[in-house]
């Protein structure tokens, strides 16, 4: 489903310590990089796409997408990538931006529509599985209002690093998904990559 006006950003700025470093998104799954798998799943759901990553952007040149570095130094975590996504989307005139993780290629093909439905008038939601009363959050999958970018920038510079805490303080709602088949299975270790290669839902 095309969601007009929502750009999407693939968060690929982590250090991949449990994978031994490097770019997890460039590892192969079924003959394609994880990022390409994510691009394929996200592209029908958004209007524009970019990759959030640090270092030399040339290593992502094959994807022909903008590469957005963190705007806060020191690898402060996913919130820095969200800020880069917000600033980029605001420059496109978008009211909100969708983020997804580069190491989680099985996310739902109706992710954006369901984030939008959950976000309400504030347009702010995070993916979760489980019960609404005790959700299991997947906070790198979210719909983020660009109007909050200055608040996020201030809080990041003040030391904020907790994605869920910051999001809930600023009005995020859960977009609940079924846990069956683990749609937000993320590839953090070599063993996870082996498990992902056994799945048939790409």
From TrEMBL:
<feature type="binding site">
    <location>
        <position position="103"/>
    </location>
    <ligand>
        <name>Mg(2+)</name>
    </ligand>
</feature>
<feature type="binding site">
    <location>
        <position position="103"/>
    </location>
    <ligand>
        <name>GTP</name>
    </ligand>
</feature>
<keyword id="KW-0808">Transferase</keyword>
<dbReference type="GO" id="GO:1902758">
    <property type="term" value="P:bis(molybdopterin guanine dinucleotide)molybdenum biosynthetic process"/>
</dbReference>
<dbReference type="GO" id="GO:0046872">
    <property type="term" value="F:metal ion binding"/>
</dbReference>
<comment type="function">
    <text>Transfers a GMP moiety from GTP to Mo-molybdopterin (Mo-MPT) cofactor (Moco or molybdenum cofactor) to form Mo-molybdopterin guanine dinucleotide (Mo-MGD) cofactor.</text>
</comment>
<dbReference type="GO" id="GO:0061603">
    <property type="term" value="F:molybdenum cofactor guanylyltransferase activity"/>
</dbReference>
<keyword id="KW-0963">Cytoplasm</keyword>
<keyword id="KW-0342">GTP-binding</keyword>
<dbReference type="InterPro" id="IPR029044">
    <property type="entry name" value="Nucleotide-diphossugar_trans"/>
</dbReference>
<feature type="domain" description="MobA-like NTP transferase">
    <location>
        <begin position="8"/>
        <end position="165"/>
    </location>
</feature>
<feature type="binding site">
    <location>
        <begin position="11"/>
        <end position="13"/>
    </location>
    <ligand>
        <name>GTP</name>
    </ligand>
</feature>
<feature type="binding site">
    <location>
        <position position="52"/>
    </location>
    <ligand>
        <name>GTP</name>
    </ligand>
</feature>
<dbReference type="GO" id="GO:0005525">
    <property type="term" value="F:GTP binding"/>
</dbReference>
<feature type="binding site">
    <location>
        <position position="70"/>
    </location>
    <ligand>
        <name>GTP</name>
    </ligand>
</feature>
<keyword id="KW-0479">Metal-binding</keyword>
<dbReference type="Pfam" id="PF12804">
    <property type="entry name" value="NTP_transf_3"/>
</dbReference>
<dbReference type="InterPro" id="IPR025877">
    <property type="entry name" value="MobA-like_NTP_Trfase"/>
</dbReference>
<keyword id="KW-0548">Nucleotidyltransferase</keyword>
<dbReference type="InterPro" id="IPR013482">
    <property type="entry name" value="Molybde_CF_guanTrfase"/>
</dbReference>
<keyword id="KW-0460">Magnesium</keyword>
<comment type="subunit">
    <text>Monomer.</text>
</comment>
<keyword id="KW-0501">Molybdenum cofactor biosynthesis</keyword>
<dbReference type="GO" id="GO:0005737">
    <property type="term" value="C:cytoplasm"/>
</dbReference>
<comment type="similarity">
    <text>Belongs to the MobA family.</text>
</comment>
<protein>
    <recommendedName>
        <fullName>Molybdenum cofactor guanylyltransferase</fullName>
        <ecNumber>2.7.7.77</ecNumber>
    </recommendedName>
</protein>
<feature type="binding site">
    <location>
        <position position="24"/>
    </location>
    <ligand>
        <name>GTP</name>
    </ligand>
</feature>
<keyword id="KW-0547">Nucleotide-binding</keyword>
């Amino acid at each position: 489903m095309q969601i007009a006006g929502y750009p999407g950003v693939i968060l690929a700025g982590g250090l991949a310590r449990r994978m031994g470093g490097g770019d997890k998104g460039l590892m192969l799954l079924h003959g394609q990089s994880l990022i390409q798998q994510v691009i394929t799943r996200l592209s029908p759901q958004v209007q524009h796409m970019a990759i959030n990553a640090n270092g030399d952007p040339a290593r992502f040149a094959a994807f022909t997408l903008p590469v957005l570095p963190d705007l806060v130094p020191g690898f402060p975590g996913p919130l820095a990538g969200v800020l880069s996504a917000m600033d980029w989307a605001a420059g496109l005139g978008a009211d909100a931006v969708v983020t997804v993780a580069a190491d989680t290629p099985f996310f739902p093909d109706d992710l954006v529509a369901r984030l939008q439905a959950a976000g309400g008038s504030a347009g702010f939601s995070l993916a979760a599985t489980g019960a609404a009363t005790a959700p299991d959050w997947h906070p790198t999958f979210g719909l983020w209002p660009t109007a909050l970018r200055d608040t996020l920038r201030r809080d990041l510079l003040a030391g904020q690093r907790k994605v869920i805490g910051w999001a809930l303080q600023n009005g995020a709602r859960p977009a609940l998904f079924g846990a069956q088949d683990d749609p937000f299975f993320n590839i953090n270790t070599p063993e996870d990559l082996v498990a992902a290669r056994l799945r048939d839902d790409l």
